[in-house]
Amino acid sequence: MTRRRTSIIAFGILCLVLAMAALWYQSHQPRTFQLEVANRSTRVVEQVRLFGSGLEQDAVLLTLPPGATAILDTPLKARGALRFEVAQGGNRIDTYIVEDTRRLEHLSQRLTIHDDNRFLLDTVEAP
Question: 32-123: which CATH architecture?
Answer without folding.
Answer: Sandwich (2.60)
